[in-house]
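BUG-201 | component: ligand-complex export | severity: low

The export step for guanosine-5'-monophosphate jobs runs without errors, but we want the raw record kept on the ticket for reference. Input record follows.
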Amino acid sequence: MNKGRLFIVSGPSGSGKDTILAELFKICPEIKFSISSITRDMRENEIPGEKYNFISKEQFENMIKHDELLEYNRFVGNYYGTPKEPVIKAIEDGCDIIVEVDVNGAAQIRKEVPDCTSIFILPPSLETLKVRLKGRGTESDDKINARLSCALDEIKRAEEYDYIVVNDNLFESVSELCNIIKLDRLKTDRNINLIEKILNE
Ligand code: 5GP
């Protein structure tokens, strides 16, 4: 059986990556999503176990100690990490899996799983990003400013990614991300068994 592929999706908070991913999973329900473990407080609209598992700092540090994370990072005072086991299992089972992490997490994953594809979601402008972050109304001005400063640092590292999707229009962004994933499935190294099958007939 062919192995699955790990896709990394990053983008500053407010870039709209969550909305793009939610739409993508409607079109491609066969793609798995890696649920991160995080220590920040749950927002009102969040459901535990959907995008994140909300755990304590002690639980998180225990996961680090037992080498249970593929990568982790601290972001605005909280831990965010990708549990290793579900990702490895999806790839071994031949499923494509999307991991949504920040730029530091992405760099760690590329070292662990070099055979992955990374996509950076850019906002159309910094102004749009500011408006989106303020519009959420879920965080204090200090936290919003901290997120904006992280956003600039993240955008500086967008060059490390294989693909850039500019989230100007939701429909187009979803279809671009979908195209990247579909094209990746046609890569020769993912289809060696098809060639071998014909040669062995
Ligand atoms: P938020 O608090 O807005 O949900 O996420 C903040 C940042 O953490 C976003 O840039 C998001 O991509 C990133 N993030 C989410 N999950 C993970 C993870 O498992 N690992 C790392 N390194 N970053 C994550």
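Assignee comment: Attached the raw record above. The mean pLDDT is 94.
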